[in-house]
Amino acid sequence: MPTLTANExxxxxxxxxxxxxxxxxxxxxxxxxxxxKDGLQLALKVLDASLRDDxxxxxxxxxxxxxxxxxxxxxxxxxxxxGFSGEHPYIAMEFLPGGTLAARIHEGIGSLExxxxxxxxxxxxxxxxxxxxxxxDLKPGNILFRSDGRPAIVDFGLAKDLGRSIALTQAGGVxxxxxxxxxxxxxxxxxxxxxxxxxxxxxxYEMLTGRRFFEDQGPAAMIAAHVHGELPRLPERLAxxxxxxxxxxxxxxxxxFQSARELFAHIAV
Length: 269
Fold this sequence. Notes:
Elements: H1 6-9, E1 16-24, E2 28-35, E3 41-47, H2 55-69, E4 79-85, E5 88-93, H3 101-107, H4 111-130, E6 133-134, E7 143-145, E8 151-153, E9 160-161, H5 183-186, H6 193-209, H7 219-228, H8 242-248, H9 260-267
Protein backbone atom coordinates (compact mmCIF):
# COMPACT_ATOMS: atom_id res chain seq x y z
CA MET A 1 0.00 0.00 0.00
CA PRO A 2 1.28 3.51 -0.68
CA THR A 3 2.76 5.26 2.34
CA LEU A 4 0.42 7.96 3.63
CA THR A 5 1.66 10.97 5.52
CA ALA A 6 0.27 11.57 8.98
CA ASN A 7 -1.86 14.38 7.54
CA GLU A 8 -3.25 12.16 4.76
CA UNK A 9 -3.98 9.37 7.24
CA UNK A 10 -5.26 11.63 10.03
CA UNK A 11 -8.90 10.61 9.63
CA UNK A 12 -8.31 7.19 8.13
CA UNK A 13 -9.93 5.38 11.07
CA UNK A 14 -12.80 7.14 12.88
CA UNK A 15 -12.17 7.53 16.59
CA UNK A 16 -8.41 7.71 16.19
CA UNK A 17 -6.20 10.66 15.36
CA UNK A 18 -3.04 9.67 13.48
CA UNK A 19 0.06 11.44 14.81
CA UNK A 20 2.90 9.98 12.73
CA UNK A 21 3.86 6.97 10.60
CA UNK A 22 6.18 4.63 12.52
CA UNK A 23 6.69 1.65 10.23
CA UNK A 24 5.44 -0.45 7.38
CA UNK A 25 5.49 -4.01 6.16
CA UNK A 26 4.49 -5.80 3.02
CA UNK A 27 0.78 -5.59 3.74
CA UNK A 28 0.36 -2.92 6.41
CA UNK A 29 1.38 0.49 7.68
CA UNK A 30 1.71 1.27 11.37
CA UNK A 31 0.99 4.71 12.77
CA UNK A 32 1.35 6.30 16.16
CA UNK A 33 -2.20 7.40 16.92
CA UNK A 34 -4.31 8.83 19.71
CA UNK A 35 -7.66 7.41 20.75
CA UNK A 36 -10.00 10.37 20.72
CA LYS A 37 -12.23 9.29 23.60
CA ASP A 38 -9.43 9.24 26.20
CA GLY A 39 -6.20 10.43 24.54
CA LEU A 40 -4.49 7.04 24.82
CA GLN A 41 -1.51 6.80 22.48
CA LEU A 42 -1.32 3.50 20.64
CA ALA A 43 -0.13 1.82 17.47
CA LEU A 44 -2.67 1.75 14.65
CA LYS A 45 -1.96 -1.06 12.20
CA VAL A 46 -3.77 -0.36 8.91
CA LEU A 47 -3.82 -3.08 6.28
CA ASP A 48 -3.85 -2.63 2.53
CA ALA A 49 -7.40 -2.26 1.21
CA SER A 50 -6.68 -4.86 -1.48
CA LEU A 51 -6.40 -7.52 1.24
CA ARG A 52 -9.98 -7.07 2.44
CA ASP A 53 -11.32 -9.53 -0.13
CA ASP A 54 -8.42 -12.00 0.23
CA UNK A 55 -9.90 -14.81 2.32
CA UNK A 56 -6.56 -16.03 3.69
CA UNK A 57 -5.31 -12.62 4.76
CA UNK A 58 -8.71 -11.68 6.16
CA UNK A 59 -8.66 -14.81 8.28
CA UNK A 60 -5.15 -13.97 9.51
CA UNK A 61 -6.26 -10.45 10.35
CA UNK A 62 -9.35 -11.50 12.27
CA UNK A 63 -7.43 -14.29 13.98
CA UNK A 64 -4.70 -11.95 15.24
CA UNK A 65 -7.21 -9.90 17.21
CA UNK A 66 -9.07 -12.91 18.57
CA UNK A 67 -5.90 -14.63 19.74
CA UNK A 68 -4.07 -11.70 21.34
CA UNK A 69 -7.20 -10.31 22.99
CA UNK A 70 -7.52 -13.51 25.01
CA UNK A 71 -4.02 -13.22 26.53
CA UNK A 72 -3.26 -11.11 29.59
CA UNK A 73 0.50 -11.17 30.12
CA UNK A 74 2.98 -8.36 30.60
CA UNK A 75 5.25 -9.77 27.88
CA UNK A 76 2.55 -9.97 25.19
CA UNK A 77 1.47 -6.78 23.41
CA UNK A 78 -1.98 -5.53 24.44
CA UNK A 79 -4.60 -5.14 21.72
CA UNK A 80 -7.50 -2.71 22.09
CA UNK A 81 -9.68 -2.80 19.00
CA UNK A 82 -10.05 -4.24 15.52
CA GLY A 83 -12.34 -3.56 12.63
CA PHE A 84 -12.78 -2.08 9.18
CA SER A 85 -12.66 1.59 8.24
CA GLY A 86 -14.03 1.87 4.75
CA GLU A 87 -11.88 -0.48 2.69
CA HIS A 88 -9.10 -0.70 5.27
CA PRO A 89 -8.88 -3.37 7.99
CA TYR A 90 -7.18 -2.02 11.12
CA ILE A 91 -5.92 -3.14 14.53
CA ALA A 92 -5.38 -0.74 17.44
CA MET A 93 -2.71 -2.09 19.77
CA GLU A 94 -0.21 -1.09 22.41
CA PHE A 95 2.50 1.28 21.21
CA LEU A 96 5.96 -0.15 21.94
CA PRO A 97 8.50 2.65 21.50
CA GLY A 98 11.65 0.73 22.46
CA GLY A 99 12.39 -0.76 19.06
CA THR A 100 12.80 -4.39 18.03
CA LEU A 101 14.96 -7.14 19.43
CA ALA A 102 16.51 -7.37 15.97
CA ALA A 103 17.88 -3.84 16.39
CA ARG A 104 19.23 -4.64 19.86
CA ILE A 105 20.98 -7.75 18.58
CA HIS A 106 22.63 -5.61 15.92
CA GLU A 107 23.81 -3.17 18.62
CA GLY A 108 25.05 -5.98 20.87
CA ILE A 109 23.51 -7.65 23.93
CA GLY A 110 25.44 -8.92 26.96
CA SER A 111 25.00 -12.56 27.91
CA LEU A 112 23.13 -11.83 31.16
CA GLU A 113 20.80 -9.45 29.34
CA UNK A 114 20.22 -12.12 26.68
CA UNK A 115 19.33 -14.59 29.42
CA UNK A 116 16.93 -12.09 31.01
CA UNK A 117 15.16 -11.46 27.70
CA UNK A 118 14.96 -15.19 26.95
CA UNK A 119 13.45 -15.75 30.40
CA UNK A 120 10.83 -13.06 29.83
CA UNK A 121 9.94 -14.42 26.40
CA UNK A 122 9.60 -17.87 27.97
CA UNK A 123 7.05 -16.39 30.39
CA UNK A 124 5.16 -14.89 27.46
CA UNK A 125 5.18 -18.21 25.62
CA UNK A 126 3.90 -19.97 28.73
CA UNK A 127 0.86 -17.66 28.72
CA UNK A 128 0.37 -18.02 24.96
CA UNK A 129 0.61 -21.81 25.07
CA UNK A 130 -1.75 -21.96 28.06
CA UNK A 131 -4.42 -20.59 25.70
CA UNK A 132 -3.73 -23.41 23.24
CA UNK A 133 -1.89 -21.11 20.82
CA UNK A 134 1.39 -21.66 18.96
CA UNK A 135 2.91 -18.44 17.61
CA UNK A 136 4.73 -20.09 14.64
CA ASP A 137 6.62 -16.94 13.62
CA LEU A 138 8.66 -16.02 16.68
CA LYS A 139 11.66 -13.94 15.59
CA PRO A 140 13.59 -10.83 16.73
CA GLY A 141 11.47 -8.59 14.51
CA ASN A 142 8.32 -9.74 16.32
CA ILE A 143 9.67 -8.88 19.77
CA LEU A 144 9.42 -5.18 20.65
CA PHE A 145 10.30 -3.25 23.78
CA ARG A 146 8.40 -0.90 26.03
CA SER A 147 10.03 2.30 27.24
CA ASP A 148 10.95 0.58 30.53
CA GLY A 149 12.89 -2.15 28.71
CA ARG A 150 10.35 -4.97 29.01
CA PRO A 151 9.91 -6.99 25.81
CA ALA A 152 6.54 -7.92 24.32
CA ILE A 153 5.68 -10.41 21.60
CA VAL A 154 3.66 -9.06 18.67
CA ASP A 155 2.30 -10.25 15.32
CA PHE A 156 0.07 -13.28 15.79
CA GLY A 157 -1.02 -13.33 12.15
CA LEU A 158 0.52 -16.77 11.63
CA ALA A 159 -0.38 -18.20 15.02
CA LYS A 160 -2.25 -21.47 15.18
CA ASP A 161 -5.08 -22.07 17.62
CA LEU A 162 -4.70 -25.74 18.50
CA GLY A 163 -8.39 -25.86 19.38
CA ARG A 164 -9.31 -25.25 15.75
CA SER A 165 -8.27 -26.93 12.53
CA ILE A 166 -7.10 -23.73 10.86
CA ALA A 167 -3.51 -23.58 9.65
CA LEU A 168 -2.68 -20.67 7.39
CA THR A 169 0.05 -21.17 4.80
CA GLN A 170 0.98 -19.51 1.58
CA ALA A 171 0.19 -21.37 -1.62
CA GLY A 172 3.33 -23.12 -2.79
CA GLY A 173 5.33 -22.38 0.35
CA VAL A 174 5.46 -21.17 3.91
CA UNK A 175 4.83 -17.73 5.31
CA UNK A 176 6.95 -17.98 8.45
CA UNK A 177 10.62 -16.95 8.50
CA UNK A 178 12.85 -19.95 7.60
CA UNK A 179 15.77 -18.84 9.79
CA UNK A 180 13.65 -19.34 12.93
CA UNK A 181 11.49 -22.33 11.94
CA UNK A 182 11.61 -25.64 13.79
CA UNK A 183 12.49 -28.83 11.88
CA UNK A 184 8.90 -30.06 12.09
CA UNK A 185 7.63 -26.74 10.78
CA UNK A 186 10.14 -26.92 7.92
CA UNK A 187 8.80 -30.35 7.03
CA UNK A 188 5.19 -29.17 7.05
CA UNK A 189 4.34 -31.39 10.01
CA UNK A 190 1.99 -30.50 12.83
CA UNK A 191 3.53 -28.24 15.46
CA UNK A 192 2.97 -27.65 19.14
CA UNK A 193 4.42 -25.41 21.83
CA UNK A 194 7.85 -27.01 21.50
CA UNK A 195 8.17 -25.54 18.00
CA UNK A 196 8.13 -22.03 19.50
CA UNK A 197 10.84 -23.11 21.95
CA UNK A 198 13.07 -24.09 19.03
CA UNK A 199 12.53 -20.63 17.55
CA UNK A 200 13.45 -19.10 20.89
CA UNK A 201 16.63 -21.18 20.83
CA UNK A 202 17.63 -19.60 17.51
CA UNK A 203 16.88 -16.15 18.94
CA UNK A 204 18.88 -16.92 22.10
CA TYR A 205 21.88 -17.93 19.97
CA GLU A 206 21.66 -14.67 18.04
CA MET A 207 21.36 -12.60 21.22
CA LEU A 208 24.41 -14.28 22.73
CA THR A 209 26.65 -14.11 19.68
CA GLY A 210 25.37 -11.10 17.74
CA ARG A 211 25.49 -13.31 14.63
CA ARG A 212 22.77 -14.69 12.38
CA PHE A 213 22.01 -18.33 13.09
CA PHE A 214 22.62 -19.19 9.45
CA GLU A 215 24.88 -16.71 7.65
CA ASP A 216 24.44 -15.99 3.94
CA GLN A 217 22.03 -18.84 3.19
CA GLY A 218 18.84 -18.74 1.16
CA PRO A 219 15.49 -20.03 2.47
CA ALA A 220 15.83 -23.52 0.96
CA ALA A 221 19.32 -23.98 2.41
CA MET A 222 18.17 -22.79 5.84
CA ILE A 223 15.25 -25.21 5.84
CA ALA A 224 17.56 -28.07 4.90
CA ALA A 225 20.00 -27.07 7.66
CA HIS A 226 17.26 -27.05 10.30
CA VAL A 227 16.17 -30.53 9.26
CA HIS A 228 19.47 -32.36 8.81
CA GLY A 229 22.41 -29.93 8.70
CA GLU A 230 24.99 -29.01 11.32
CA LEU A 231 23.72 -26.29 13.63
CA PRO A 232 26.02 -23.46 14.74
CA ARG A 233 27.59 -23.77 18.20
CA LEU A 234 28.52 -21.09 20.68
CA PRO A 235 32.10 -19.84 20.95
CA GLU A 236 34.16 -21.10 23.90
CA ARG A 237 33.57 -17.97 26.00
CA LEU A 238 29.82 -18.72 25.94
CA ALA A 239 30.11 -22.50 26.35
CA UNK A 240 28.25 -22.40 29.66
CA UNK A 241 25.05 -21.65 27.75
CA UNK A 242 25.48 -24.52 25.28
CA UNK A 243 23.54 -27.14 27.31
CA UNK A 244 20.45 -24.90 27.38
CA UNK A 245 20.84 -24.17 23.69
CA UNK A 246 21.26 -27.87 22.88
CA UNK A 247 17.92 -28.65 24.52
CA UNK A 248 16.13 -25.76 22.83
CA UNK A 249 17.52 -26.71 19.41
CA UNK A 250 17.09 -30.48 19.65
CA UNK A 251 15.82 -31.76 16.31
CA UNK A 252 13.29 -34.05 17.94
CA UNK A 253 10.63 -32.11 19.83
CA UNK A 254 10.60 -34.76 22.57
CA UNK A 255 14.26 -33.98 23.33
CA UNK A 256 13.62 -30.26 23.94
CA PHE A 257 12.28 -28.54 27.01
CA GLN A 258 8.71 -29.79 27.03
CA SER A 259 7.14 -26.48 27.95
CA ALA A 260 7.98 -22.80 28.23
CA ARG A 261 7.36 -23.10 31.96
CA GLU A 262 10.04 -25.79 32.24
CA LEU A 263 12.44 -23.56 30.32
CA PHE A 264 11.65 -20.55 32.50
CA ALA A 265 12.23 -22.56 35.68
CA HIS A 266 15.60 -23.62 34.28
CA ILE A 267 16.90 -20.20 33.23
CA ALA A 268 14.97 -17.73 35.43
CA VAL A 269 17.09 -14.70 36.37
